[in-house]
Amino acid sequence: MKNDLWPVLMVGCGRMGGSIAAALTSHRQVFAYDPKSDLPSDTVHVTSLDDRRLPQKLIIVLAIKPQIFAKIGQDFSILAGPDRVFVSVMAGIALKDLENTLSVGVPIVRAMPNTPASIRFGMTAAIASSSILPVQQEEVTKVFETIGELIWLDKESDLDIATALSGSGPAYFFRFAEAMIEAGLEQGIDKAIATKLVRQTMIGAARLVETANIPLDVHRQQVTSPGGTTAAGLDVLNDRSSIDLLLGKVVEAAAQRSRQLSMMD
C-alpha cells in the first residue's frame, strides 16, 4: 500500500507535525526534517532539504511556526518540482504569500487540522491554489483522511471560520468540561468523581453523535424531559440566548484573530 501513495516530507516535527507524521507512517513513506525537534520513529530522517533520497513525487507538509517561515521560507523553494505539492498547516499565511515565497505557480494547499489528528480523529479544513492538479489534490486528500476527516473549501476566507470552529474547537469543549467539573465541586462532589463523570459524559456524547445519524437538536431533545433536571439546566443556558451569544463572540474572536494573522507581514 505504501508504494501506491505519494511519500510525505514533514518539515517541522513539533506537536502537530510530529503527530501527523507518526499517524502517516503505517500507510506511506514519511521523510522528516527538523533540526530542532526529536523526529518520529519509523520516519526517514533527512538533514538537508536537497537530500537525494527525496523522491520526485512528494507532498511537502510545512508544519513550522509562521514566524520561522517568515525568516527562512525561501529556503524551501529548493523543494519545488513538477510532481510536488506544498501543504501548509501554518496559521495565518495566505496562499498568495506562500506562493510568493516558495515559487510562483507551484501547487499549494492551506490546511487546518486539529489536535485529535494525533489519534486519527482529526477534522481538517483545506483550500487549494488554482495551480493544483486533480491527481495532486486527491493525494493530499488521502493524507488527511488518514488522520480523520477532511473538507475542501471553495473560498480561502472560509478557512478563518473553519479555524475558529474546528481548529480551535477542541479547546472550547475542554474549557466547557472544566467549567462543568468546577460547577460539580461547588455543589459538593469530590473532584475525582466530578472529573470522571464529565470526561465520560463528553466521550459518550461524542460517540452518540458519531454513531446515530440524527440532528443535534434531536439528541438534545432525547435527553430532555419536560420539567426535568436537564430542562432546568437548559433553561439557564438558553436564558436570553446566553449560550448562543457567548459562543457567537467566541467564534467571532477566533476568526478575527485568524484574519489578523493573515494580514501580518
From TrEMBL:
Keywords: Amino-acid biosynthesis, Cytoplasm, NADP, Oxidoreductase, Proline biosynthesis. One of its GO terms (cellular component) is cytoplasm. GO terms for molecular function: pyrroline-5-carboxylate reductase activity. It is an enzyme of class 1 (oxidoreductase). It catalyses: L-proline + NAD(+) = (S)-1-pyrroline-5-carboxylate + NADH + 2 H(+); L-proline + NADP(+) = (S)-1-pyrroline-5-carboxylate + NADPH + 2 H(+). Its EC number is 1.5.1.2. Pfam families: P5CR_dimer. One of its GO terms (biological process) is L-proline biosynthetic process. InterPro entries: 6-PGluconate_DH-like_C_sf, NAD(P)-bd_dom_sf, P5CR_dimer, Pyrroline-COOH_reductase. NCBIfam families: proC. Catalyzes the reduction of 1-pyrroline-5-carboxylate (PCA) to L-proline. Belongs to the pyrroline-5-carboxylate reductase family. This is Pyrroline-5-carboxylate reductase. It comes from Hirschia baltica (strain ATCC 49814 / DSM 5838 / IFAM 1418).
